[in-house]
Amino acid sequence: MNATGDRSALQRRRAQELGVRPEQAAPLIAKEAGLPFSEEPNWHPDPASVAPLAFLSSIHALPLSCDDGVHLATTWAPDASCESWARATLGTKPIWTIVAAPALDSAFASRFGVAAANLEGSGEIIPEETEAEDDAGDDAAAAKLVEGLLTRAAGEGATDIHVEPWGRELAVRMRVDGELEPVPLPANAAALRRSVVARLKVLAKLDLSERRTPQDGRFSAEAGGRRFDIRVSTLPAVHGESVSLRLLETEATPPVLSELGLPSAALNAFSEATTSPHGIVVVTGPTGSGKTTTLAALMRSVMRPGLRAVTVEDPVERELPGAVQVQVRPELGLGFAQVLRSVLRQDPDLILVGEIRDRETADIAVRASLTGHLVLTTLHANDSAGAVERLRDLGVEPFLLASSLRLAASQRLVRKVCPDCSTKSRLSKELLLAAGKALGRTPKEDGLRKGSGCRFCRGGYRGRTAIAEALRASASVRSMIASRASATEIRALGVTEGMVTLPEEALRAAEAGITTLAEAALRCADAHG
Ligand SMILES: [Zn+2]
């Protein structure tokens, strides 16, 4: 990474060390440097009139509107070389102000778009689009744009970046807290669209000349002071290739169970189920519901030096220190079932199966759990009782399932209300009734909150938390499974035995002001009956 954003990375790192947000670390950094801190910077309307954009980008500073002298806002105290560069460029000694990294970074992005300052003056050197394939390779402007995108994604905590050709335009969107949002781009970005795609393909070591078939690759990069493993996939679309990037922070240790924000009923059920040395624990939920993270946290809670842990994953998403992790390669005939069969010859105690998709895998997993192994896995099913039905549909014998199942859980992620701008939420009777209908009962109005949107959040939300229901395989639940009872009957029994359903947990989270009623209904209403 070049200097762009480095200062913000320094501030974010200091904030992390202090265990606070950058907004709280910035005043301390200012104090240490003997510089003023501005909470709400009054940005100069025309930064280019104050200093060359390339310079401002390089030192990661933006001018403020002031009558006396040149005021530059930045996120980390300038060193001597920065000072002298600034003085030489501006012809005067600037007056520095420290601001919070998110404020400066979003000011950069909203004023110029990602990395736009790097593209200054490049209008004349970017060739008109041609069909030639080689002008793309190491196009410096595209490389900087890609770098700027990665820095921004790291800063915002994005999980995915999508580079999409829209007609002759280039669109870039990022997924943050599960929501897609457009990334502002410089005006000349459209002309770079082929080069940006080519740059990403080069990074991921893909075949540049192949534009008609989908390709997959990966690369690692440092952005915003953190290391990422980035999976890249291309899809040939009508107007050119669409490229998707999935960002996985490599050195981030998986969270432990208690850090997921799970409701206490589910947390207790998980802890109880994983004390058993054998059996199968299933977590269900749609894509993006956080079930893989929960599985990793479960693994962490069970693993100890005396146990041999093996994982079979597609793909291996994060490192689990102490576990042997295997990636399935269906193209080489190494699907989940085949790998799992080999794993069983490797004397494992604990097995993580990334996902059960077919009968063979389901059979092997269930049999393994009956022969002294603890198996943790995920499934696509709407709710916890639905997991039982799904396994039976895949062809698992009900009596085998009844004896092996320890726990079936279902999970969703909901966005959390921003604590900095939330207020009591007043809803009309109609909305309360509608939400009540979707979630199973009318909510109590007292604790409902919602955010109005502020500089710390996105539209009133900041971060996400897990909501889950957990069906314990009690003796009565097992006998119901063995007698081929329906998911509805099993769910009803689970509730009488203390299971708090997903919609009910979501309602409680809304009533506690953790999330909004709208978000609870949006994410968790489908897990109802
Ligand atoms: Zn807020």
Helix content: 25-40%
* Structure class: alpha/beta
Number of helices: 18
3D shape:
globular
Strand content: 15-25%
Key features?
binds zinc ion; 529 residues
Question: Gist?
Answer:
This protein is of the alpha/beta class and 529 residues long.
Model description:
The protein has helices at about 5-20, 20-35, 55-60, 80-90, 100-110, 140-155, 195-205, 265-275, 290-300, 335-345, 360-370, 385-395, 400-405, 430-440, 475-480, 485-495, 500-510, 515-525, and strands spanning about 60-65, 70-75, 95-100, 160-165, 170-175, 180, 215-225, 225-235, 240-250, 280-285, 310-315, 325, 350-355, 375-380, 405-415, 420-425, 450, 460-470. With about 525 residues, it is α/β, with parallel strands linked by helices. The chain has a 7-stranded mixed sheet, with helices on both faces. Strands 6-5-4-9-8-7 form a 6-stranded antiparallel sheet. Helix 1 packs across helix 2, helix 11 packs across helix 13 and helix 15 (about 475-480) packs antiparallel against helix 16 (about 485-495). The radius of gyration is 26 Å and the shape is globular. The two termini are about 50 Å apart. Mean pLDDT is about 90; it is low at about 115-135. It binds zinc ion (ZN).
Structural topology:
Blueprint: H1 6-18, H2 22-33, H3 53-59, E1 61-64, E2 71-74, H4 80-90, E3 95-98, H5 101-112, H6 140-156, E4 160-166, E5 169-176, E6 179-182, H7 193-203, E7 215-223, E8 226-237, E9 240-249, H8 264-273, E10 279-284, H9 291-302, E11 309-313, E12 323-327, H10 336-344, E13 350-353, H11 359-370, E14 374-379, H12 384-393, H13 398-404, E15 405-417, E16 422-424, H14 429-439, E17 449-451, E18 461-472, H15 475-482, H16 487-496, H17 502-511, H18 517-524
Parallel strand pairs: 2-3, 10-14, 10-15, 11-12, 11-13, 13-14
Antiparallel strand pairs: 1-2, 4-5, 4-9, 5-6, 7-8, 8-9, 15-18, 16-17
Helix pairs in contact: 1-2, 1-5, 6-7, 10-11, 11-13, 12-16, 13-15, 14-18, 15-16, 17-18
